[in-house]
Amino acid sequence: MDATTMALALALGNLALCVPLFFFTAGAPGSPALSLWSVARQVQAIAWLLLYFGALGKVPGSLALPGGSLLLFAGIAIEAGAQWEAAGSERWRPILVPLLCVAAVLFLLAWLVDETLLGAVVYSLILGLFYLAQAAALAHSWRAASILQRFLALAIALLALALAARGVLLMPLPEGRGWLSFALLRQISLASLYVLSLLSAFGSLLLARERLQQELARMQVIDPLTDVANRRGFLNALAPWMALARRPGHATALVLLDLDNFKRVNDSYGHPAGDVVLRQLAEVCRRQLRDSDQLGRLTGVEFAILLPRTGLEEAALVAERVRAALESTAVKTGRALVKLTASFGVTTIRADDSTVTLFQRADQALQAAKQAGRNRVELAPAATVPE
């Protein structure tokens, strides 16, 4: 494929991506990263069209080549910014414009000095560096990255190095040496740029779909208000510990807690204030628990805590610590400071338990705490050992 055909193919390909993406995001709130990526692809489409018409002689070469190259730099740099945005980092924002300005000045100076050699060297190096910035964004948080994201990071990095290699090798070898000719380096550069454009485009779309699937899966098990496990998520976390309870070993405890007089908060200060209280309750609980403990929201104001490898007495101490922390917390709402108290029921998983019997026993202890005056911890009766 020659450079002219490649420019047309990439221009049409980017336009074909942008059109359906426009209708996909129209009228619906999209992610900032996806919107930024769409802008990057539009800029790249204009750049390739300008380069294509310049190659055909429809646009003067003195305008098409530098103008198209600068737009291409901007499009790929913005695309790298979109990847950093998707990675949750905003550090790219203050450096994007200065970096593009430096790249533009270097390229224009090189192009004016020697359009054929030095301009090609700087052009390849700048494109390679901007694609390497994309690879770095994809490699961000490597341990938590999916297999697809890791593959894209490695593939884009290798192709970006192949693209930049043209510039590195042309500097000491302007005439080529042996099999390493100018024409071969140019073909490698064109092929790398073409594959990079396609790979980053379809890779970004696949990553967006993967992130959407992950978010949907997360919403099925996470309570959106408090960002802790919902009932389904908590029961999923509880299931393996129910199975382990049938084997001899360390006990596992369950704590149910219910906010005292929460209806008064909603009635007096409104539901937004109630939401603030629930979020604060979850945060206070998290600070008192281990990383291995699991906090979940079962219903409106009823929460559960799973304490692996914790006996009844130790679980009571944990519940008391959480109760004291809640009692000492005053939540600032829009209209007042709201004091928190909660009642707790504590039990441990027994070998013959089902989830129904386990929660019934914990709920009975919780009701006993409420009947005894609230803001207290009650333990379920210990299992009787048959004689």
UniProtKB/TrEMBL annotation:
Domain GGDEF intervals: 250-382
Organism per entry: Massilia horti
Enzyme Commission identifier(s): 2.7.7.65
InterPro entries assigned to the protein according to its UniProt record, in alphabetical order: Diguanylate_Cyclase, GGDEF_dom, Nucleotide_cyclase, Rev_trsase/Diguanyl_cyclase
Molecular function via GO: diguanylate cyclase activity
Class of the enzyme per the UniProt entry, highest EC level: transferase
NCBIfam families cross-referenced by the UniProt entry: GGDEF
Catalytic activity: 2 GTP = 3',3'-c-di-GMP + 2 diphosphate
Record keywords: Membrane, Transmembrane, Transmembrane helix
Name of the protein in question: diguanylate cyclase
SUPFAM superfamilies: Nucleotide cyclase (SSF55073)
Transmembrane segments: 6-27, 63-82, 94-112, 118-139, 151-171, 191-208
